[in-house]
Amino acid sequence: MVATVKQALLEIIENVKIARDVYKMILRGDISAITTPGQFVNLKLDGFYLRRPISVCDAEGDKVTLIYKTVGGGTEKMSGMKPGEVIDALIGLGNGYDTAPSGDQPLLIGGGVGVPPLYLLAKRLLAEGKKPAAILGFGCADEAFLDKEISALGVTTTVTTVDGSRGVKGFVTDAMDGADYTYFYACGPEPMFRAIDKAATSGGQYSFEERMGCGFGACMGCSCKTIAGNKRICREGPVMKREEIIWEK
Amino acid sequence: MGKMTVDLCGIELDNPVIPASGTFGYGYEFAELYDINILGTFSFKGTTKEPRFGNPTPRIAECTAGLINAVGLQNPGVEKVLSEELPKMRKVFHKKVMANVSGFSLDEYVYTCSKLDCCDEIGWFEVNVSCPNVHGGGMSFGTDPAAAAEITAAVKAAVSKPIIVKLSPNVTDIVSIAKACEAAGADGISLINTMLGMRISLKTKKPIIANVMGGYSGPAVYPVALRMVYQVSSAVGIPVVGIGGVSSAEDVVEMMLAGASAVQVGAANLIDPYASKKIIEDLPRVMDKYGIDSLKSIIGGAR
């Protein structure tokens, strides 16, 4: 699906810390352009030239939830913003996940700040009558978030931590052994994708990240090569099907 | 004749605002957002003889007042531009477009421009001479007056449409290069292309851009661009298109006072997809505020 981009002024109604360096921001406005789980928004922040692309965690009615990690000046600035402040956002960006090939028992695999878009995806899959399960990987217990909310949707959720301080000790792939699934949807760091690609026994989709200029397909800053030709992560992505990805060294 | 109309190499523009090459694709992404026929024209994505993926990613780095890009002229190649991109563009843009062309040898420039010359929808060629010359030790054509003149003369001889040579600011004396292009038959000069820059990540302690360096654009380069437009337009008798960090209607007016006959908007389109539209809509207010009846009349007014 090709996105229809819109510009929207969104008012912050909540901005709270939910885990180590991780914040949840809820914004209100016309978010009708957000149609598909796995899409992202691109936020203009005072004092920063480029917008900040953030994945959509949830979108319902006139409220969009973003969960972000403070990784630099832009996200640090976001973490200090207060309810009532208004953000100029480009919304409806990216293709999002395609739920059509999921089968009955899709597996959602998230790593760190890759977890948020899986929330809206889980809701969409459940609404379609499917029975998704989730494996969410974090570094340690302090960094874990959103597992209870995803579980509360009725999704069987397994948490993994690298240090074993919570759930299964190890990586998401350690929890994939023996799992029964018809398809997978992954979001997280690229090394995790490479490990999943070795372990996975079904088709699936990955959501990629790249440094972006514009976020809507104009600058060609975030291009990648795929079996299906060159794609812009921001436009024809960020979600790519497993079979079209070229894993470069 | 409207008060915003300008003439660019014999073609009248409704207004002087032109989205710059590489920030506007072939137009149709922006046409989803607004009617791009309000533009003076736009300069389409730099097109080469062969398809190009461009440089490895990351290709983008943020700066205080701009960004560095090292896209590396990604484009589908002239054949696909003719068979796929221009037909899509034609559906949404009905004015003459500026065809931005690049090459890595003299023959490539001539080949690509010759292929595009038959397209009615193309009004001008914008010849980007900032690319490295693979037969000339990799030095950019645009850093040497003789090489820039050679490209200009060869393209001019091969096409029927006006050619505007787009100059690099990464040179010692941009005026001598502009004069060499004029003498070789250029119908116009556009400047500036991006300035060579770089950023280093404090986390990885390595360059952010995979290609190490890239082109810096955005508001930070505006005063440099303005100065070079002033210098070049004072020294040549052909129209000059001002480019570099233009972000407002005030910037457009100032660039024209410096000597620009038309003005390109680049990085601003990437930050706000409506930037060019907003600038055009704001121009009448700025003209009124400063007592300007006709944009055409202020070109070079600061000299």
What does this structure look like?
The complex is a heterodimer of chains A (249) and B (303). Chain A contains five helices and 15 strands. Chain A is of the alpha/beta class and 249 residues long. Chain A has two domains: 6-93, Elongation Factor Tu (Ef-tu), domain 3 (Beta Barrel); 100-207, Nucleotide-binding domain of ferredoxin-NADP reductase (FNR) module (Rossmann fold), CATH 3.40.50. Chain A starts with 5 loop residues before the first strand and ends in an 8-residue tail after the last strand. The model of chain B has no long low-confidence stretch (mean pLDDT 96). Chain B has a seven-stranded parallel beta sheet with strand order 3-13-12-9-8-7-6. In chain B, helix 4 (145-158) packs parallel to helix 5 (174-183) and helix 5 (174-183) packs across helix 6. Chain B has a single domain (6-50, 73-196, 217-298), classed as TIM Barrel. With 303 residues, chain B is an alpha/beta fold. Helices cover 32% and strands 17% of the residues of chain B. The interface between A and B is medium-sized, with 26 and 33 residues.
Concise structural overview:
With 249 residues, chain A is α/β, with parallel strands linked by helices. Helices cover 16% and strands 36% of the residues of chain A. Chain A has two domains: 6-93, Elongation Factor Tu (Ef-tu), domain 3; 100-207, Rossmann fold, CATH 3.40.50.
